[in-house]
């Protein structure tokens, strides 16, 4: 399962990328709003930092014509490899059909139901993004919904992969990794949380203390 950063803060993206094995960045209009900066200024910085790693950028227009014009602008500024995030609505599906036929990379988003994912796959989307925790908050089961969508893609022979989003804990990420989902995008604090474990910290400190007891304080394999 690929791991993406769901954020537009360039400092955070650089910090997470330094330590964690990440494959790119996803953004949405709310995430861009949090940056407080002109959208294409932020996105261009992210694109430059990422190199050939994945960047996913969402359209704002509600109508297919507007979505297609935005897709053209986004790829013109940020490169043809940029994934265009399109909400799975009636107009969104119309735009996906046209854009996928035209060779655009598409991430179908705002997915709350397996039937949205199915239609996105039929419309040629590369990724489908179920909002795991938001589905949980509706009283349904976000992880199970994402698994059902994954089954639809695998059993139906669609190229579309899950790009699960809206995580609030490690367990949600772990369940979808174990199930073989294609991709998860997580906020920086969720990525940090994937290895936050005081027992690990304790174990590593104990190893250091034992070794220093043998060869002296501050010593490592370099100077023992
Ligand atoms: O792009 C969708 C995803 O970022 C939503 O996450 O945390 O706002 O539910 P959240």
Keywords:
224 residues; alpha/beta; 11 helices; 8 strands; 53% helix; globular; binds SN-glycerol-3-phosphate
In short:
The protein is α/β, with parallel strands linked by helices. It is built from 11 helices and 8 strands. It has an 8-stranded parallel β-barrel with strand order 1-2-3-4-5-6-7-8, surrounded by 6 helices.
Task: Walk me through this protein's architecture.
With 224 residues, the chain is of the alpha/beta class. Helices cover 53% and strands 17% of the residues. The protein is built from eleven helices and eight strands. It has helices spanning 10-19, 29-35, 39-50, 64-78, 90-101, 114-122, 132-137, 142-156, 170-178, 188-193, 198-215; strands spanning 2-6, 24-26, 54-58, 83-87, 105-111, 127-130, 161-164, 183-186. Strands 1-2-3-4-5-6-7-8 form an eight-stranded parallel β-barrel, surrounded by six helices. α9 links the parallel β7 and β8 (183-186). The chain is globular and about 70 Å long. The model has no long low-confidence stretch (mean pLDDT 98). The structure holds SN-glycerol-3-phosphate. The site of SN-glycerol-3-phosphate has 7 residues, from α7.
